[in-house]
Structure formats: C-alpha cells, structure tokens
Design brief:
The complex is a heterodimer of chains A (318) and B (540). Chain A has helices at residues 3-37, 54-60, 63-94, 101-109, 116-126, 133-140, 150-156, 180-188, 193-204, 208-216, 221-232, 234-249, 253-258, 270-280, 284-312; strands spanning 40-41, 49-50, 145-147, 167-169. Chain A starts with a helix and ends in a 6-residue tail after the last helix. In chain A, helix 3 (63-94) runs antiparallel to helix 12 and helix 14 (270-280) runs antiparallel to helix 15 (284-312). Chain A is built from 15 helices and four strands. Chain B has 22 helices and 19 strands. In chain B, helix 11 packs across helix 21. Chain B starts with a helix and ends with a helix. Classes of the chains: A mainly alpha (318), B alpha+beta (540).
C-alpha cells in the first residue's frame, strides 16, 4: 500500500465518516443495546436488571401479545395481497394510452402525499356510523337491517356469548369490534398511490416485442397479462411485497389515531403494544424483546418471500 | 480540476462560517446572575398562557428577590419527554406530570422526595385537602405537589329536564332535582331518552338521558361509586374482579342493552362531536347528564356562552354585548347612549364611576372629567350566576345506600425529577405556586377547585364556575378518592378501560372482562414486585 493509497483511503473514510458514525451511534449501538435490554428488566429510569430469558418466557404466555400478533397478521393477510392486486389493477388501467392519463395518474398518487394524521382524521369522518359519507351512501342504496349469523351459529352449535351476533347494516365501522379491522383494511387501499407509481414504471419496462410475439401467437388479453405482463413485472411485485410485509407488520399511526387499539383490543397492533410497553408501562426490556421477535418475524417472512421468489420472480436477461 | 476543488472548498468553509456566525446558539440566561429553573408543562394554548402568567409573576417578584428565573416550556407528551430526559440525565428542574404518573415515576426512583423541602414552607398534611395530599405520596414519601386539581361530578342540562318534565313526573321523578342514587339515575336516564320508531321497524336514537361512555374518562374508576377500589392498599393487591366491581361493570353493560339494540347505541355515539368542540354531545343536547369536572364551565363559556346566560333579560345581555364597544376617551353621553342609564353613579376626587348590570357581569366605567378612563367587568357572585346557568351540577350518585359525595380527585402535578440541576430553586417556584393567593389565581383561570384546605370566600364567589363550591365540597368528602398508589396504574387503567369497552359492546360478560383485566394487571404488578425485590437484593 503506497502512501497515496493510504491518503485516498483516509480521504474516502473521512467523506464516509458522517454515515459511518451515524450508523454506529444511531443504529448499531441501539440495536446491540436493545438486544441486551431484552434480557433485562429496564424501565429507562433505573439501571437494567438482568433477568435472563424471562421477558421472552413472559411474552410466550402473554395473551395480549398473541392478540396483537393475531390482529397484525389478520390485517397483513388481507391488506397485503388486496393492496398488491389493487395497485397492479390501477397501474394497468393508468398504463392505457387514454386522454387525461396524467390527470388520472396524479389523482391516484395524490392521497399518498396526504400525511397519515390528516388521512386518519378524514377517514374517521367517512366511517362515522351516523354522519359518515359511507353509511349515508349505503343507507341510500338500501343497505339496511342486519346480517344474521344464525346459520353459522347452528352449524357450529354456538350459543350465548360464544354465538356470533347479528351485524347491523350499515355497520358502525370503527365503533364495532367486528368491523373496525375491516375499516382499517379498506382505508389502507387509499394509500396505494406509491406502489402504483412503481408498478407503472415496471410496466413501461416490459419489452414491446414480447407483446408483439404474444399477438402473433394469438394470445388473448388475459393470456398477455398472465404470461407476459405479470412475469415481466414480477421483480417489481417482489420488491413491493417485501416492503408491504415490513410496512404492514409495523402498522402503528393509523390505528393509534383512529381507534386507539379498540374497541376491545380489536385493532390493537403489534407495534402499538410494543410502544405501550416501552413508553406507557415503562417496560423497555419487554418492549426490546418484542422488537427482536418482530425483527425475526419480518426476517422469516422476507426469507420465505425470497425462497418462493425463485419460482415466480423472473428477471430480464436470465 | 484544482480550480473546482478550490471553489467547492471555499463554499464548504463559507457555509460552516455562516452557520457559526448566524446559526442557532445556546440561549443566554435571560437575567444575568439568576439561577435558571427549567419548567416543562403539558399545557398549551390558553391554559399554557395562563400558567405563563403565573411564571411571569414569579420571575418579577419572588424570583427577582431570590435570584431565580423560571424558563417555561410548554409541550405535548410531557410524560414521555420527561421520561427520556430523566433517563438521559438531563431532566427539567420542574415537570408538570399527571397524577397517575406519580406512583409510576416514584416507584422507578425517578423523582426527588419533597418532604424536607416542603416543611419550611408550611406545606404539610393540614395544608392540603386529604384526597390530594395522599395521592401526592408514594409509600409514605411526598413526591409531588399539585398545580391544579379537580373533582368529578354530575353535570346536567336543566332545559332538557324542563322540556321532559311531564315524562319525569309520569315516572314518579322530580324534574327539579337531580338523581340521588345510581338506581334513580337509571330511572331519570330512561325517562329522558328520546327514541323514535322508524317506518322500517328500526329505531333512531335522538338523544339519551345518560351514557356511561360519554365522555367515559373515569370508567376504570366506576367501582368507586359501587363502594370498591381497584387496589386494596391493606393487602397490596389488585382487586379488579371483585363482586362489587362486577356489579359496577354490569351497570355499564345495562346501558348497552337498555334500548334492546346496542348497535344503535354505538351508531348514536359515533355521531358525537369531540369534547372540545361546539358539537360536544352534552352541549348540543344529545346527552342530558354527563360525568365531568369543574373545567367544563370554561368550555361552556368558550363553546356555548348562551348556557351561562340562560334566561338573562335580553336588555341586560345587550348591555353586556355593547359594553365591549366602550373605549377609553369616550364621553359619558356616548357611553350612556351605548349602555343606557347606569345602575349607580358615584363621584369622588374628580372621578365619576358608573356601574351597569351587563348579563352575568357588572361593568364599571371610570370617567376622568367627562371621558372614559378605565373600564372593568366583574362576574356576578357565583350564587347569583347559578340561576342563569342552563346547566347544573350535583354529586354523582352512588349505588350504595348512604354512600354520599363519592368522587375522584384528579390533579396535575409538579415534580422535581432526579437529576435536576437546581432542586432547591425549583422547589422555591413550586412553593410559590402553592401559595394560597397564587394557587387560587391559577385554579380560577383554569376553572378548577383549589387543592388547599383554606379557600377564600372571594375564590368561591368570583370563580368562573358558579358551582365551584360543590366541586370543592366534594374534594373535602370522606368518600373522595385519588389516584391509587400502584406503580402499574397505567396497565390497570388500560385494562379496565378495555374491559368497559368489551362489556359495552357485549363482547364479554363483566365477569369475563374483569377477570382478564385482573390477570393481566396482576401479572404486571407481580413482575414489578419481583424485580423490585431483586433490585433491593442487589443493592444490599
């Protein structure tokens, strides 16, 4: 190594140092500390006390932890695939060469620019059971009365408190434990604009000659979509899927503002519980353990997505 | 290339120099030679400005005399910011936490005990009303003092009662008084409900006599009105699912099933506006009775002033409205033209003073010669104002025969976090706020009762809440309960509120919901005690 090389290395490191220092101080150190705290009882206000794997063992028996996890998975399982389907459908529509294309694209993208708090406030009014626009429209088109679940109760031999209770129509949305999660899932589609833009970019990259070849082979529109478009944008779908898995498992601000986790913990998400444990109940050690479990869940799901991607993600030129 | 490098280098150097010269810098002490006390408080907007007034008074008087300057910083999420700053070793000198955080922070050894500091100022048990004094303690030590307190009472809409007087009479109830027992409250509520049958057979709830979930801020404490508490101090155990608590939550659930359709009640509730809005369900007549605190008078004055001027003769209201137009320098004739003939005119030493009845106030205008010199307005004495209130206040009735004046004594606190740089000076300020005159000024502005045993007649008479005496008496009641000294109170509160939500939605029986709350909270408390024991062991 010449002195010039050393000088270049020093200069390079000097230029990178803000990032290196930032990563070490604000990411790496907290990461390591949170791993240590996850094995401690730590209220932030007192020194941590080593309790071994107690936090992890407590989590295993914590009903609320499992409920929050169930809620989060239920949300992700519906919101994630539906979000992808809706985004692709929107992108396909917006990819059509029609008049006013830019206007439509802007319109679809605009909601994703609205801050989360403003969106939440807006949707709280839309979902208002008495005065909300959604129920006003539903009532106007005759969605009234109730949905009975007697058939299901009879089938499962459910009685008393175990039985499913009839759902009033139009529903009370956020005020009813049975519909609050559905309302949040519906609302999540409002912000698909970001992924629509990414899908649109992906669609523009699909080589024209593939469509021409499909046309020559006599492929129908559906066959073109299934055999050309989707495989060609599969890397984009894969990217959005990974981002959506991470995003949906970290859902926090919208339910925090709109429902506070209620009614009856029906919309209590994993990250909300983690936050409460850390900053409301002052159990930072427990929250750290939860954060590590969350990281492992995300890692496992991401690894699963990568593993399956070999079968359905196609990169151009491979 | 060398040239470009030089230009970039020069830009960077100039940028750094600009930041150093014009950039932000640490604030110099506002008054040289004074100790600066950092005070963080939760209040923003009007309440924040009112506290700022008290801080300014201190800085100009006691602060100036003793060389202390209090720097007031108003912020949201004060509990979390105090928590993080205390953990980091850079806490404020005074923090304005909520009452339920006192046991939580004290248990974590994050607050300074104040007993020794308070004594020389005469702040001992007799100085405070018992309910507040007890709640400022954790395990026998004083960790907080009160900034503004409150008690919880029943607020009712007088006009709503009057309009449905026939219905109340038909139900054997007196429309001119409030319910005396919880059973009677239920009967009043039922008689006051306005429900219409729709042509399609369903119902539309127009208004209700009472709904426990409006505003529902003290649902976790419902047991108090049934003669039980969430925590038994004698045995140091939580008792969230004891039979009386089950009875309390069965009562909450009865309001969901009363009209035979809890979904309709959910729908009705979802139409409620937020508390701090003109669409507040109590103020728009959607709910006739609510559980509320003394501050409601301020909200009424801001959001629905007509409720404080009910049946005031229109001409007097006109005088109140026009009195705002009286300006310095106006002539007596002009003032008379605006307000009419004064009720009284007094002359002394070259000045003339005229007084007018103006709505719920008395307006006094002082003239020097023929010109207006000063104008002031004073509220009518509280007792006289009550008849002009469209709303009334009474103790919230209890379910237990003979158990009277049950209330929850809530309060905002001032604490000194451990690590405070100037605890002595910080306490000087806390003690100043706790002076009777200062406390009454602050509590008057915030529309709350005083935590102190001694209360002046003027405080009661001139208070913006004409019913403040009722709130004050409730605070003195032997059945007034404060925050319980449980370190895991946030868990208890969260679980109890969740249980209330579950029973009101008919998703669980009161027994099931409370049992779940008990298990989760007790687990949290057991864990706290285990770690506490371990800590003690390690420190030995």
């Amino acid at each position: 190594v010449t002195s010039k090389d050393r000088q270049d290395l020093f200069k390079g490191l000097a230029f990178c140092s803000p990032w290196i220092i930032g990563l070490c101080v604000f990411t790496l150190l907290p990461l390591i500390l949170s791993l240590y705290y996850s094995f401690c009882d730590y209220s932030l206000l007192q020194d941590p006390v080593w309790i071994g794997t107690q936090n992890y063992r407590d989590i295993a028996h914590d009903e609320l932890f499992w409920q929050a996890l169930r809620n989060t998975f239920a949300y992700a399982l519906v919101a994630l695939p539906m979000g992808i389907i809706i985004s692709i459908a929107m992108a396909l529509l917006l990819n059509q060469n029609i008049k006013g294309q830019s206007f439509y694209r802007t319109t679809i993208f605009l909601p994703s620019l609205v801050p989360a708090v403003a969106s939440a406030m807006l949707w709280m009014w839309l979902f208002n059971a008495k005065l909300g626009l959604i129920n006003t429209v539903l009532s106007a088109i005759g969605v009234n009365g109730q949905i009975s679940f007697d058939w299901l109760n009879n089938l499962l031999h459910l009685q008393g408190n175990d039985a499913f209770k009839a759902l009033p129509l139009p529903p009370a949305w956020l005020n009813d434990a049975r519909t609050a999660m559905s309302a949040l899932i519906l609302m999540s589609f409002w912000g698909v604009g970001n992924s629509v833009v990414i899908y649109l970019a992906g669609l523009q990259d699909v080589p024209r000659e593939l469509y021409e070849a499909a046309d020559i082979d006599g492929a129908s529109g559906w066959q073109r979509l299934w055999n050309v478009t989707l495989p060609m944008i599969s890397p984009v779908i894969f990217f959005n899927l990974i981002m959506a898995i991470i995003g949906s498992l970290q859902t926090f601000s919208t339910p925090y503002i709109m429902t506070g986790g209620g009614p009856y913990h029906a919309t209590y998400f994993y990250t909300m519980y983690l936050y409460d444990k850390a900053y409301v109940f002052l159990q930072m050690g427990y929250a750290s353990a939860m954060a590590w479990i969350q990281l492992f869940i995300v890692l496992i799901l991401t690894a699963l997505a990568f593993w399956t991607s070999r079968r359905w993600v196609h990169y151009q030129g491979k | 290339v060398q040239q470009v490098k030089r230009v970039i280098g020069a830009i960077i150097v100039l940028g750094i120099a600009a930041v150093l010269i014009f950039g932000p810098r640490s604030e110099a002490p506002p008054v040289e030679g004074r100790v600066v006390v950092e005070y963080w408080e939760k209040w923003t907007s009007k309440e924040g400005q009112q506290m700022m007034e008290v801080v300014d008074d201190f800085n100009q008087t006691v602060g100036a005399e003793k060389g202390i300057y209090v720097r007031y910083l108003s912020m949201s999420s004060i509990n979390q910011k105090t928590l993080v700053s205390t953990a980091a070793g850079v806490p404020p000198d005074v923090a304005g936490l909520w009452d339920h955080q006192v046991p939580q922070f004290a248990a974590a050894d994050a607050l300074m005990p104040l007993d020794q500091m308070a004594k020389p100022y005469g702040i001992t048990d007799g100085y405070y009303k018992k309910v507040y004094w007890d709640s400022c303690h954790y395990r026998g030590k004083l960790y907080a003092l009160v900034s503004t307190p409150a008690t919880v009472a029943l607020l009712y809409n007088k006009e709503y009662f009057e309009e449905r007087a026939d219905r109340l009479k038909a139900a054997g109830l007196d429309p001119n008084r409030t319910p005396q027992t919880l059973q009677e409250l239920d009967r009043y509520a039922e008689a006051l409900d306005d429900v219409e049958k729709l042509p399609n057979g369903s119902m539309n709830i127009k208004s209700m006599g009472y709904v426990p979930l409006e505003p529902g801020w003290w649902l976790a404490l419902t047991g108090l009105w049934f003669g039980t508490e969430n925590y038994d101090a004698a045995t140091d155990t939580l008792q969230l699912d004891n039979p009386k608590m089950v009875e309390a939550f069965t009562w909450i659930q009865s309001y969901a099933t009363r009209l035979g359709n809890n979904a309709k009640i959910s729908e009705f509730r979802s139409g409620f506006g937020t508390f701090n809005s003109t669409q507040n369900p109590f103020l728009v007549g959607q709910v006739a009775m609510v559980q509320q605190g003394p501050w409601m008078a301020n909200y009424i004055e801001n959001l629905k002033p007509s409720w404080n001027r009910w049946r005031v003769p229109p001409e007097k209201l006109e005088v109140e409205r026009k009195s705002a137009e009286v300006r310095e320098g106006m002539s007596l004739a002009e003032v008379k033209g605006l307000l009419g003939e004064p009720k009284e005119m007094q002359e002394a030493a070259g000045t003339t003073r005229g007084t007018w009845d103006a709505g719920i106030k008395t307006v006094t205008v002082e003239f020097a010669g023929d010109k207006v010199k000063t104008k002031s307005a004073a509220l009518l004495p509280a007792v006289d104002r009550r008849k002009y209130c469209q709303w009334g206040v009474a103790p919230f009735p209890s379910a237990v025969p003979g158990l009277k004046d049950v209330t929850f004594g809530a309060f905002d606190t001032m604490v000194i976090p451990k690590g405070s740089k100037h605890p002595k000076e910080a306490f000087e300020f806390i003690a100043y706020v706790n002076r009777q005159d200062v406390m009454e000024k602050l509590c008057g502005m915030h529309c709350k009762n005083s935590p102190l045993t001694k209360v002046s007649k003027e405080f009661i008479a001139n208070h913006p809440n004409p019913y403040i005496e009722i709130f004050d008496e409730l605070a003195r009641s032997p059945n007034a309960h404060g925050v319980q000294q449980v370190s895991v109170w946030p868990i208890v509160s969260d679980e109890m509120n969740n249980a209330a939500s579950g029973v009101f939605q008919l998703l669980a029986t009161p027994q099931e919901a409370l049992h779940t709350a008990q298990i989760r909270s007790a687990n949290g408390y057991d864990h706290f005690r285990e770690v506490e024991t371990k800590r003690k062991g390690e420190s030995k």
